[in-house]
Amino acid sequence: MISYVILGITFLYAVIQISIYASRRRKPLTRDDIDARLLAALNGGTGTRE
Q1: How far is CA 23 from CA 11, 48, 50, in A?
Q2: Are 50 and 35 in contact (CB under 8 A)?
Q3: Which of 8, 22, 41, 48 might form a disulfide with 36, Cβ 3.0–4.6 angstroms?
Q4: In the chain, where are the structural domains located?
Q5: What residues form the membrane-spanning segments (predicted)?
Q6: What is the pLDDT of residues 22-42, one digit of tens each?
């Protein structure tokens, strides 16, 4: 029973994220963008220096 609740919440989260992504219609992130965001997160910052 609990697993169905967790599955339902996960499904709703995925639907919401897809709808937000579709409404923004932004281009997908490149590998370099993802790497820069992950590196910034690991360093505790919000941006990257270029």
Answers
A1: 18, 26, 29
A2: no
A3: 48
A4: 2-43
A5: 6-23
A6: 887 767 778 998 899 889 888
